[in-house]
Amino acid sequence: MIPFDATKPLLVFGGPYSNLEATRAMRQRAEDLAIPANNVICTGDVVAYCAAPEETARLVADWGCHVIQGNCEQQLAAGAEDCACNFEDGTECAALAKGWYPFANSRVSDEMRAWMGDLPTTLRFTFAGRTFRVIHGGTDVINRWVFPSERDILTEEVVLAGADVIIAGHSGIPSITRVRNRVWFNPGVVGMPANDGTTDVWYGLIRPIDDGGVMLSTHRLAYDHQTTAAGMRRFGHANGYARTLVTGVWPSLDILPPAERDATGQRIRARTLRIAPAARAPLKGTVKATA
Ligand SMILES: [Fe+2]
User: Fold this and answer.
1) Cα 279 to ligand 1 centre (Å)
2) 5 located within any domain
3) Which of 72, 171, 209, 273 to pair with 255, CA 20 to 30 A apart?
4) How close is the Cα of 180 to the center of ligand 1, in Å?
5) Residue 33's domain is classified under what CATH number?
6) CA 14 – ligand 1 centroid, Å
């Protein structure tokens, strides 16, 4: 059992992606919200597209929050030659990975590789009477793409995960989705925008509420994206992703199902879901969108 402070919210976020400025902003937001490191969970891919892999890994390790392995941690810890992101051959993402992954692989220290290799692949815990499971991509397949519009995949995954609330990363777009009396909660990532035409990145909160239930929510986070983009251009790698930091649109839409692809450039709304106390009822509730 993870010894959370049950009187405070949990802060959950994904994909720092070697984006040092965004990760600093995330840590600062946690401090502003008075959320201790032990109540913070990262869903992995600490190192990826941006230009500060070692510095970002050290920042997260120094923070002391909970982190699970993403495919990037597994590959870097193993000294592998590619990211295993599950990009299809011939796509822009696959081409860009040939730039950023070797760059990251050449800059991450043995100490940080060992830290990545020691991270767990999943976490389970109980909070406000509900069971939670933290995974990176899919439950059994670390680099599986899971999006809210693909209901068959979501249904398969919530059954496999076996918890009331599944906290997932990897896919890069924030969402809270009810599936078969369970919830798929992707708090988004801090290292890249969410393909919604804004430069903001995303995180999530899990808050205990007065009636004994719990509130899930997604939140925007602004940070100094111009400095991050300038750093990437200076090193001359992954410029498609450097553009994404300032346009808010991904360099390739190949991994997206049609519904998420059609939403490209449309501002994402924050979401909330209030879950009743476990003793009162099966998991019910309606996801609400806010501005
Ligand atoms: Fe990933």
Assistant:
1) 35
2) no
3) 273
4) 25
5) 3.60.21.10
6) 9
4 within domain boundaries: no
Q: How far is the CA of 7 from the centre of ligand 1 (A)?
A: 31
* Distance of CA 59 from the midpoint of ligand 1 (Å): 19
What secondary structure does DSSP assign to 141-179, as a single string? -TT----TT-HHHHHHHHHHHTSSEEE--SS---EEEEE
Interval between CA 136 and ligand 1 midpoint (Å):
7
Q: Is residue 2 part of a domain?
A: no
Q: 233 in a domain, yes or no?
A: yes
Give residue 119 CA to ligand 1 midpoint distance, Å.
14
pTM for the model stands at: 0.94
Containing structural domain, residue 155: 10-290
- Tell me, in angstroms, the distance from the centre of ligand 1 to residue 62's CA: 21
Buried b or exposed e, range 210-228, using 16+ CB within 10 angstroms:
eeebbbbbbbbbebebeeb
- Tens-place pLDDT, residues 170-208: 999 999 999 988 999 999 999 999 999 999 999 999 999
- CB burial of 262-282 (b: ≥16 within 10 Å; e: otherwise) equals ebeeeebebbbbbbbebeeee
How many angstroms separate the alpha carbon of residue 85 from the centre of ligand 1?
Answer: 6
